[in-house]
Amino acid sequence: MVEKLLLCVCCSLVFLTCNLSAQDLKIKFSDRSIQEGEIFTITLTVPTKKVKEISPFPEIEDFSKKRTIFHRERKEDIFIAEQEYLPSKPGVFTLPSFTISVNGQTYRFNGTKITVAPGKKSLEQISEDKAGKKEEFSPSELDAMFLVESNQKSVFVNEGFVLSASFLVAKDNPSEYNFVDLNKQVTYIIQDLKPADCWIEEITSPGELKKDTVKFHNKVYNRYRLYKVCLFPLGAGTINIPSTGFKILTYATLRTKNEIERKDEFKMFKSGGIAIQVLPLPEHPLMDSVAVGTAELQTNIWKKVLEVNEPLKVSLKLTGMFNPALAEMNVKESRDFEIYPEKEDLKKDERGSDIQFTKVFNYEFLPKNSGNIKLADCFSLIYFNTSSKTYDTLTPKFMIYVKGERKSEYISSHEDGFYQLIDKSSNRLRQGERDDLTKVLTNIIILFMLVTTIILIIKR
């Protein structure tokens, strides 16, 4: 029993010691308002000299890493690591929260903002100052690639295909790297990826960087998704997507016992060109105005049995891969019902390399006569099905049962609906003499009532 108690006490002491060490790990930033050409420094203090392994310091966009300095204080049992950064341009920059691993244990720290004012000394001058050094730097061994991919090699006119631009870095890559002028580079990439003869549906916003992990040629990569777009060609022929480039900042390194010095190296990665064959659609009277692709139609209604003149909300959800601008519901007019369109909803979902569109058509359905009404006789959508390579029509499957008689003699005496009556009503101007006479009589009555009220108040 005593041995178990001592073991628990020892374990608790070790746990408390580890927590204390984690709390004593400190990060310090140098002056966060600097000039272009000046160094910004992050200093890490570890409360032990026995540091066997430490992970790289974080990257800061539009900053390049310079020296990393390690030293141990003899008088105190601490280890200090310093990372120097050099800004590439003036501005206000954000260092988000970051992690650093020490001896296999990861610690999280809060970020900060750095303000860089325009300076007199340029980056080129700084490079010239260091050019006199005789030490040889080891070149970067960045294991990476820049890819522009299409999910289709051949499509029909108005059929969508997805283009994506990604930067891939091997997960076991040993070299450090940083993005430079990301928004400007993505803007140039977008210009190269957007053909002139296509309808465009943006999937990601320019500058929106998404990171995930993929397996490519039996190797695991960190993938940075730079841009993704869905294109719908407007004419037959060949769409040529040219080769485009993406520039990365990496570093040649010079290592000594207590210091790592870095020299900027810019590497340009090129994508391959892509050719997409666009096939003409089979002849059809609506071939230029119907959606092309794959689609399913779902119907949502809250009841099937109605009274005459009882409104019903009808929601028709179209899901698939199609141009939402061309996907339009055909609505039939009838004396037995009235249909009023409401707001449409559009949603885009990424499904791996593909895209799924969901377009919802909302209507208010108002029956005017009793009887059975097939919704298929009210709504229809024609499209070209790329799976069967035929034109197809989607219709809702429900039947509406309407009971009762018209609730108003006025309504029963007019076969046309309210909006049809508006169209048939005369818009000719008529004289307003009768209206003026009515106004005069009304004003006299109001004046009489007001005088009577005042007299009664005075008598009281």
From TrEMBL:
Task: Name the InterPro entries on file.
Answer: BatD
Top-level division of the source organism's lineage: Bacteria
Signal peptide span per the entry?
1-22
Annotated TM spans: 440-458
The keyword Transcription regulation is assigned to this record: no
Q: Per UniProt, which keywords does this protein have?
A: Membrane, Signal, Transmembrane, Transmembrane helix
Against Pfam families, the record matches this protein to: BatD
Q: Which PANTHER family match?
A: BATD, PROTEIN BATD-RELATED
This chain's protein is named BatD protein
